[in-house]
Amino acid sequence: MATSHLHKPDDQSAEAIERLMDQYTQIARLAGALAHEIKNPLSTIRLNMELLLEDLDDAESPGQRRAVKQVELVQRECQRLQDLLDDFLNYAKVRQLDLTPTDLNAQIDELLDFFAPETRSTEIEVLRYFDPELPHVNLDREAFRGAFLNLLINARQAMPRGGQLTVRTHGQGDNVAVRVIDTGDGVDEKTASQMFEAFFSTKPSGSGLGLPTTSKIIEAHGGRISVQSEVGHGTQFTIELPVSPRLPENPARSP
Length: 255
Known about the structure:
Heat Shock Protein 90, two-stranded antiparallel ribbon, 6 helices, about 20% strand
Protein backbone atom coordinates (compact mmCIF):
# COMPACT_ATOMS: atom_id res chain seq x y z
CA MET A 1 0.00 0.00 0.00
CA ALA A 2 1.33 3.41 -0.96
CA THR A 3 1.78 5.70 2.01
CA SER A 4 2.83 9.31 2.23
CA HIS A 5 3.32 11.38 5.36
CA LEU A 6 4.14 15.00 6.03
CA HIS A 7 6.42 15.60 8.99
CA LYS A 8 7.40 18.83 10.62
CA PRO A 9 11.14 19.43 10.81
CA ASP A 10 12.22 18.69 14.37
CA ASP A 11 15.99 19.02 13.98
CA GLN A 12 16.13 22.74 13.24
CA SER A 13 16.51 25.51 15.75
CA ALA A 14 13.67 27.93 16.39
CA GLU A 15 15.79 30.68 14.87
CA ALA A 16 16.33 28.76 11.62
CA ILE A 17 12.62 27.96 11.35
CA GLU A 18 11.70 31.59 11.96
CA ARG A 19 14.14 32.69 9.23
CA LEU A 20 12.66 30.22 6.76
CA MET A 21 9.13 31.39 7.62
CA ASP A 22 10.14 35.00 6.99
CA GLN A 23 11.56 34.03 3.60
CA TYR A 24 8.44 32.07 2.76
CA THR A 25 6.24 35.01 3.76
CA GLN A 26 8.16 37.37 1.46
CA ILE A 27 7.98 34.94 -1.47
CA ALA A 28 4.27 34.31 -0.87
CA ARG A 29 3.53 38.04 -0.86
CA LEU A 30 5.51 38.61 -4.06
CA ALA A 31 3.81 35.68 -5.77
CA GLY A 32 0.41 36.91 -4.62
CA ALA A 33 1.12 40.40 -5.92
CA LEU A 34 2.20 38.96 -9.27
CA ALA A 35 -0.96 36.87 -9.51
CA HIS A 36 -3.09 39.95 -8.81
CA GLU A 37 -1.24 41.84 -11.55
CA ILE A 38 -1.97 39.03 -14.02
CA LYS A 39 -5.67 39.09 -13.14
CA ASN A 40 -6.06 42.71 -14.27
CA PRO A 41 -5.12 42.25 -17.96
CA LEU A 42 -6.88 38.88 -17.91
CA SER A 43 -10.12 40.62 -16.96
CA THR A 44 -9.64 43.00 -19.90
CA ILE A 45 -9.12 40.08 -22.29
CA ARG A 46 -12.24 38.31 -21.00
CA LEU A 47 -14.37 41.44 -21.34
CA ASN A 48 -13.23 42.04 -24.91
CA MET A 49 -13.87 38.41 -25.83
CA GLU A 50 -17.44 38.78 -24.56
CA LEU A 51 -17.92 41.95 -26.63
CA LEU A 52 -16.43 40.28 -29.69
CA LEU A 53 -18.76 37.31 -29.26
CA GLU A 54 -21.73 39.69 -29.14
CA ASP A 55 -20.59 41.22 -32.42
CA LEU A 56 -20.51 37.72 -33.93
CA ASP A 57 -23.91 36.74 -32.54
CA ASP A 58 -25.48 36.60 -36.01
CA ALA A 59 -22.55 34.83 -37.67
CA GLU A 60 -23.57 33.36 -41.01
CA SER A 61 -20.48 32.86 -43.15
CA PRO A 62 -18.07 29.95 -42.53
CA GLY A 63 -15.36 32.44 -41.58
CA GLN A 64 -17.58 34.08 -38.96
CA ARG A 65 -18.64 30.74 -37.49
CA ARG A 66 -14.98 29.74 -37.30
CA ALA A 67 -14.24 33.03 -35.52
CA VAL A 68 -16.98 32.29 -32.98
CA LYS A 69 -15.37 28.93 -32.12
CA GLN A 70 -11.97 30.59 -31.75
CA VAL A 71 -13.37 33.25 -29.43
CA GLU A 72 -15.12 30.59 -27.34
CA LEU A 73 -11.83 28.69 -27.10
CA VAL A 74 -10.06 31.81 -25.82
CA GLN A 75 -12.88 32.32 -23.29
CA ARG A 76 -12.47 28.77 -21.95
CA GLU A 77 -8.72 29.21 -21.62
CA CYS A 78 -9.23 32.56 -19.87
CA GLN A 79 -11.58 30.89 -17.40
CA ARG A 80 -9.06 28.10 -16.80
CA LEU A 81 -6.36 30.70 -16.10
CA GLN A 82 -8.73 32.59 -13.80
CA ASP A 83 -9.45 29.42 -11.82
CA LEU A 84 -5.73 28.66 -11.58
CA LEU A 85 -4.96 32.16 -10.31
CA ASP A 86 -7.74 31.92 -7.72
CA ASP A 87 -6.43 28.54 -6.51
CA PHE A 88 -2.88 29.86 -6.38
CA LEU A 89 -3.84 32.96 -4.39
CA ASN A 90 -5.68 30.74 -1.92
CA TYR A 91 -2.61 28.49 -1.64
CA ALA A 92 -0.03 31.27 -1.38
CA LYS A 93 -1.68 33.64 1.06
CA VAL A 94 -0.24 33.80 4.55
CA ARG A 95 -2.72 32.25 6.95
CA GLN A 96 -3.64 34.02 10.16
CA LEU A 97 -6.06 31.63 11.78
CA ASP A 98 -8.93 32.60 14.06
CA LEU A 99 -8.89 29.55 16.30
CA THR A 100 -11.91 28.62 18.39
CA PRO A 101 -12.53 25.45 20.47
CA THR A 102 -14.81 23.44 18.20
CA ASP A 103 -16.82 20.22 18.23
CA LEU A 104 -15.10 18.51 15.29
CA ASN A 105 -17.84 15.90 14.92
CA ALA A 106 -20.49 18.59 14.49
CA GLN A 107 -18.31 20.54 12.07
CA ILE A 108 -17.69 17.50 9.84
CA ASP A 109 -21.33 16.41 10.08
CA GLU A 110 -22.38 19.83 8.78
CA LEU A 111 -19.88 19.68 5.91
CA LEU A 112 -21.08 16.21 4.88
CA ASP A 113 -24.67 17.47 4.86
CA PHE A 114 -23.58 20.41 2.69
CA PHE A 115 -21.80 18.02 0.29
CA ALA A 116 -24.69 15.51 0.22
CA PRO A 117 -26.13 16.65 -3.17
CA GLU A 118 -22.76 15.87 -4.78
CA THR A 119 -22.55 12.38 -3.32
CA ARG A 120 -26.18 11.57 -4.12
CA SER A 121 -25.82 12.65 -7.73
CA THR A 122 -22.87 10.29 -8.20
CA GLU A 123 -24.37 7.39 -6.19
CA ILE A 124 -21.82 7.57 -3.39
CA GLU A 125 -22.92 6.13 -0.06
CA VAL A 126 -21.61 8.13 2.91
CA LEU A 127 -20.91 6.37 6.22
CA ARG A 128 -20.27 8.40 9.37
CA TYR A 129 -18.53 6.89 12.39
CA PHE A 130 -17.99 9.63 14.96
CA ASP A 131 -16.37 9.10 18.36
CA PRO A 132 -18.98 10.45 20.83
CA GLU A 133 -16.22 11.21 23.35
CA LEU A 134 -14.08 13.17 20.88
CA PRO A 135 -12.38 16.13 22.60
CA HIS A 136 -12.72 19.60 21.13
CA VAL A 137 -10.01 21.01 18.87
CA ASN A 138 -9.02 24.59 18.05
CA LEU A 139 -10.27 25.35 14.54
CA ASP A 140 -10.48 28.23 12.15
CA ARG A 141 -13.83 27.01 10.88
CA GLU A 142 -13.72 28.77 7.52
CA ALA A 143 -10.20 27.56 6.73
CA PHE A 144 -10.95 24.00 7.88
CA ARG A 145 -14.14 24.00 5.81
CA GLY A 146 -12.12 24.68 2.66
CA ALA A 147 -9.52 22.05 3.56
CA PHE A 148 -12.06 19.32 4.30
CA LEU A 149 -14.16 20.07 1.23
CA ASN A 150 -11.02 19.57 -0.88
CA LEU A 151 -10.80 16.02 0.51
CA LEU A 152 -14.47 15.36 -0.22
CA ILE A 153 -14.10 16.66 -3.78
CA ASN A 154 -11.03 14.45 -4.26
CA ALA A 155 -12.99 11.41 -3.02
CA ARG A 156 -15.93 12.15 -5.32
CA GLN A 157 -13.61 12.47 -8.31
CA ALA A 158 -11.98 9.15 -7.40
CA MET A 159 -15.40 7.40 -7.58
CA PRO A 160 -17.01 8.54 -10.87
CA ARG A 161 -19.08 5.33 -11.00
CA GLY A 162 -20.20 5.56 -7.38
CA GLY A 163 -18.86 3.86 -4.30
CA GLN A 164 -18.59 4.30 -0.57
CA LEU A 165 -17.17 7.21 1.40
CA THR A 166 -16.41 6.60 5.06
CA VAL A 167 -15.59 9.40 7.49
CA ARG A 168 -14.37 8.30 10.91
CA THR A 169 -13.22 10.30 13.93
CA HIS A 170 -11.48 9.06 17.08
CA GLY A 171 -9.17 10.28 19.79
CA GLN A 172 -5.56 9.17 20.06
CA GLY A 173 -3.67 10.59 23.03
CA ASP A 174 -3.22 14.35 22.75
CA ASN A 175 -4.60 14.36 19.20
CA VAL A 176 -7.80 13.58 17.39
CA ALA A 177 -7.82 11.82 14.04
CA VAL A 178 -10.19 12.13 11.09
CA ARG A 179 -10.07 9.45 8.42
CA VAL A 180 -11.62 10.02 4.99
CA ILE A 181 -11.78 6.70 3.12
CA ASP A 182 -13.02 6.15 -0.42
CA THR A 183 -13.46 2.99 -2.48
CA GLY A 184 -12.14 4.57 -5.67
CA ASP A 185 -9.43 3.37 -8.01
CA GLY A 186 -6.57 4.31 -5.70
CA VAL A 187 -3.10 5.42 -6.79
CA ASP A 188 0.38 3.94 -6.88
CA GLU A 189 3.18 4.71 -4.42
CA LYS A 190 4.85 7.34 -6.61
CA THR A 191 1.61 9.27 -7.08
CA ALA A 192 0.78 9.08 -3.36
CA SER A 193 4.19 10.54 -2.50
CA GLN A 194 3.53 13.58 -4.71
CA MET A 195 -0.09 14.32 -3.86
CA PHE A 196 0.77 17.20 -1.51
CA GLU A 197 3.23 18.84 -3.93
CA ALA A 198 2.10 22.13 -5.46
CA PHE A 199 0.93 21.86 -9.09
CA PHE A 200 1.07 18.05 -9.14
CA SER A 201 -2.15 16.65 -10.59
CA THR A 202 -3.28 13.50 -12.34
CA LYS A 203 -6.29 15.35 -13.77
CA PRO A 204 -5.89 17.17 -17.13
CA SER A 205 -7.88 20.18 -15.93
CA GLY A 206 -6.68 20.19 -12.32
CA SER A 207 -4.60 23.00 -10.86
CA GLY A 208 -2.70 20.66 -8.56
CA LEU A 209 -3.27 23.02 -5.61
CA GLY A 210 -6.28 21.53 -3.82
CA LEU A 211 -4.47 18.97 -1.66
CA PRO A 212 -1.38 21.17 -1.09
CA THR A 213 -3.72 23.91 0.16
CA THR A 214 -5.42 21.40 2.46
CA SER A 215 -2.02 20.35 3.79
CA LYS A 216 -1.02 23.95 4.51
CA ILE A 217 -4.25 24.63 6.37
CA ILE A 218 -3.91 21.50 8.52
CA GLU A 219 -0.28 22.33 9.32
CA ALA A 220 -1.29 25.89 10.26
CA HIS A 221 -3.59 24.30 12.85
CA GLY A 222 -0.58 22.48 14.32
CA GLY A 223 -1.69 19.21 12.75
CA ARG A 224 -0.62 16.90 9.97
CA ILE A 225 -2.15 14.99 7.09
CA SER A 226 -1.12 11.72 5.51
CA VAL A 227 -2.40 9.48 2.73
CA GLN A 228 -2.53 5.75 2.18
CA SER A 229 -3.65 4.33 -1.15
CA GLU A 230 -3.63 1.10 -3.10
CA VAL A 231 -4.44 0.72 -6.77
CA GLY A 232 -7.86 -0.86 -7.13
CA HIS A 233 -8.66 -0.59 -3.42
CA GLY A 234 -9.21 3.09 -2.70
CA THR A 235 -7.55 5.84 -0.70
CA GLN A 236 -7.49 6.97 2.91
CA PHE A 237 -6.57 10.47 4.07
CA THR A 238 -5.84 10.91 7.77
CA ILE A 239 -5.92 14.30 9.50
CA GLU A 240 -4.44 14.60 12.98
CA LEU A 241 -5.15 17.70 15.07
CA PRO A 242 -4.07 18.59 18.60
CA VAL A 243 -6.71 18.55 21.30
CA SER A 244 -7.73 21.97 22.66
CA PRO A 245 -5.90 22.68 25.91
CA ARG A 246 -8.19 22.51 28.89
CA LEU A 247 -8.74 25.72 30.82
CA PRO A 248 -7.51 25.56 34.40
CA GLU A 249 -10.22 25.28 37.00
CA ASN A 250 -10.77 28.25 39.31
CA PRO A 251 -9.05 27.56 42.63
CA ALA A 252 -11.35 27.35 45.64
CA ARG A 253 -11.44 30.55 47.66
CA SER A 254 -10.09 30.48 51.17
CA PRO A 255 -12.71 31.04 53.83
